[in-house]
Write a structure and sequence with these properties.
Elements (H helix, E strand, L loop, with lengths): L1 E2 L5 E2 L5 E3 L7 E3 L3 E4 L4 E4 L14 E7 L4 E2 L2 E2 L5 E6 L3 H4 L6 E4 L1 E3 L7 E2 L8 E2 L3 E6 L5 H7 L3 H9 L2 E2 L3 E3 L2 H5 L2 E4 L2 H46 L7 E3 L7 E3 L3 E4 H4 E5 L13 E4 L1 H5 L6 E3 L5 E2 L4 E4 L1 E2 L9 E3 L6 E3 L3 E6 L4 H8 L3 H4 L8 E2 L2 H5 L2 E4 L2 H44 L19 H7 L1
Parallel strand pairs: 7-14, 23-29
Antiparallel strand pairs: 1-2, 3-4, 5-18, 6-15, 7-10, 8-9, 11-13, 11-15, 12-17, 16-17, 19-20, 21-32, 22-30, 23-24, 25-29, 26-28, 26-30, 27-31
Length: 460
């Protein structure tokens, strides 16, 4: 017995046989296992840039590129056109029910097929996108679902050409992939089961994602209130003179950032980037990911010391990195790159400034939403701030460290829950499409109105 997304158990088939494929193992005795080419043909795509003579009738048509076919879904937000001869249109035209698959891509995503349902009329596809056309024995969504299984992942990994982060696979290897295939009625039943079960898991994932966003919002709200209003709700207040800030504690002093810190801009370390470098190159991505995206370098032109606050000075319109902060906790390790500045506190708590300056509204107002934002040194040094006395800064920091520690723990727990749910989803798909569980007796929950994979399969 194996369990579904809510703990329900599913039986195994009464009889199994050896599939003859090591990574596939046993399959139900009435299933057929054969290469994909038994059940489908593959259509090559059009190569962009092909030239035609002046007397050749041509037409411009939309076509799907590798960028449109990503990780098991079709992204139609940006579809380009290509010029082809009228006589070649049928050769490259997509048909509803084609399963699209990229020739190359990320190692962990290569081979994930997605069903084309004819969203765009007269749509072609690039030569780096395979269009696999199933026959009457293979439902398109069965093939798409199988490509998401661990068994298929093993095949594509073994038979693709691997590089550092990318892989590619030939059309002949795609069509040689062993495919476990039950009768079409059973395919529909399994697809319907998976659609309902994975929808339940996806709903739980969405709940966790919403919780993460709420926790982040609460975390930021607590920080913003503490560094602009303090911790005492009964303290006398005064008008700050800043519309977005409103009132601040009456005893807080107005300062320019340049009067309480030493300010320096980073230097270009790109010529010295080396995976084995001694120093961490602090660029905008490093700061915006809180140090999880790391590049190293062999020279340190702008060293950062413990207690320095590093901030991003440049970002794309509406970017999430602009004015993000990173607190340095170890000297002689970080090299501050260009478009990042080093703020060295002289008359303020480093951790208080780290909280106060992160995504500071006065800096974010420089982003017009249309052009890349480049904050100047003056934008930082002339920044006006209301600061509490140092002892009050320490109290606020203690409060925020405690609060953020608790919230961060809940965030870690939610991310772990999402990872476990996704693992469960993947395991369930793999078990169903390789016959490790028998769901022929499964019935959809009463009142279910979700569009099932089986219904979509009938549509194409």
């Amino acid at each position: 017995m194996q369990r579904g997304s809510e703990g329900m158990s599913f039986p195994r088939y009464p009889e199994y046989k050896d599939s003859g494929v090591e990574w596939l193992g046993e399959v139900p005795v009435h299933w057929v296992v054969g290469p994909l080419r038994w059940y489908a043909t593959i259509q090559g795509g059009v190569a962009k840039g092909k030239s035609y003579s002046d007397d050749t009738p041509t037409v411009d048509l939309p076509y799907l590129r590798v960028a449109n076919v990503q990780d098991g879904h079709v992204d139609l937000s940006s579809v380009n056109t290509v010029t082809v001869a009228l006589s070649e249109v049928e050769r490259y035209r997509l048909q509803p029910g084609d399963v699209l698959m990229n020739e190359g891509g990320d190692n962990d995503k290569l081979g994930r097929g997605t069903v084309w349902e004819g969203e765009i009329a007269d749509c072609l596809h690039q030569n780096h996108v395979f269009a696999i056309r199933p026959n009457q024995y293979l439902l398109p969504y069965w093939l798409s679902m199988f490509t998401r299984s661990s068994a298929a992942r093993s095949y594509f990994y073994l038979y693709s050409k691997q590089s550092t982060n990318l892989a590619s696979i030939s059309s002949s290897n795609v069509m040689s992939c062993p495919l476990p295939l039950p009768p079409t009625a059973e395919q529909r039943q399994i697809l319907s089961f998976l659609d309902n079960e994975t929808a339940r898991i996806d709903a739980l994932v969405e709940e966790q994602q919403r919780l993460i966003e709420l926790l982040k919002e609460k975390r930021q709200a607590v920080i913003s209130h503490a560094v602009t209003k303090g911790l005492d709700p009964d303290v006398p207040m005064k008008d700050s003179g800043v519309e977005w800030l409103g009132e601040v504690p009456a005893h807080w002093e107005l300062k320019r950032l340049g009067d309480i810190v030493e300010f320096s801009q980073g230097k270009a370390h790109e010529p010295f980037v080396d995976a084995d470098g001694e120093y961490i190159c602090v660029n905008s991505r490093f700061v915006s990911t809180n140090g999880s995206s790391v590049k190293r370098c062999t020279k340190n032109l702008t060293p950062a010391n413990k207690g320095d606050v590093l901030m991003v000075m440049s970002d794309l319109p509406n970017g999430r990195a602009l004015a993000r902060t990173f607190l340095v906790e170890q000297s002689d390790l970080y090299a501050v790159n260009q478009r990042v500045c080093r703020i060295r506190p002289v008359a303020a708590s480093p951790l208080f400034l780290f909280y106060l300056l992160d995504r500071h509204p006065s800096l974010l107002f420089k982003d017009d939403g249309f052009n890349q934002t480049h904050l100047s040194g003056g934008d930082f040094t002339q920044l006006r701030l209301y600061l509490p006395p140092e002892n009050e800064q320490s109290e606020i920091v203690k409060h925020l460290v405690s609060h953020t520690y608790q919230v961060d723990g809940l965030l870690v727990e939610s991310h772990e829950n999402i990872a476990l749910l996704k693992e469960r989803r993947s395991a369930l798909i793999s078990a169903a499409v390789t016959g490790k569980i028998d769901v022929r007796g499964w019935q959809p929950p009463a009142g279910s109105t979700a569009t099932t994979e089986a219904t979509r399969a009938e549509m194409v």
